[in-house]
Amino acid sequence: MWDTRTTHSNVSGRTATTVKRDRYLDLNSLLVQKCNGNCVDCDKPRPTWASVNLGIFICTECAGIHRSLGTHITFVQSTKMDKWKDEWFENCRVIGNGVGRAYYEHSLPKDFIRPRAVPVGGDCLRAQEASDLKAFIRNKYIFVFTYAFLSKKMFETQFRITKS
Ligand SMILES: [Zn+2]
User: Fold this and answer.
1) Three-state SS for 43?
2) Fold of 2-158
């Protein structure tokens, strides 16, 4: 009697561990793909967060901005967390940063300059770049279709983009 229960428990435990490890490996297999190697918004290398409903990978700074938009628009989860739902993984597998950019940035000018976060110590970002990045992300995901009606000139004015 005891032997049977112990064996059953061991089998269950082993199965659960295997599933958990496989999911972690699956997620890593997505993160090592070239298109997912940089934050989809600011291009910072090695993103460690994901918007699991949008199916894209983002950096810590952009994750903070995504959270401010509300979970009804973008639902942020850490890629380090081991309890990923299958649907989150599927969104990120099917979409990813390549498709994400192609979709959400399809109407941006080809020569637009991507806003970047500039850390100035601790969790703080330089104000001008933080403001530009926030405006970019907000417009990109909330007003995605509006971009189709924005001229290049309007876009440049809105994001104060100047070529150096
Ligand atoms: Zn970023």
Assistant:
1) coil
2) Annexin V; domain 1 (1.10.220)
What distance in Å separates the CA atoms of residue 129 and residue 86, rounded to the nearest whole number?
35
Q: What is the pLDDT of residues 117-138, one digit of tens each?
A: 888 887 788 888 889 999 999 9
Give the pTM: 0.74
CA of 63 to the centre of ligand 1 (A): 7
For the segment 7-48, what is each residue's pLDDT rounded down to a tens digit? 344 444 445 445 555 666 688 899 999 999 999 999 999 999
- The rounded Å distance from CA 21 to ligand 1 centre is 27
Domain boundaries, the chain: 2-158
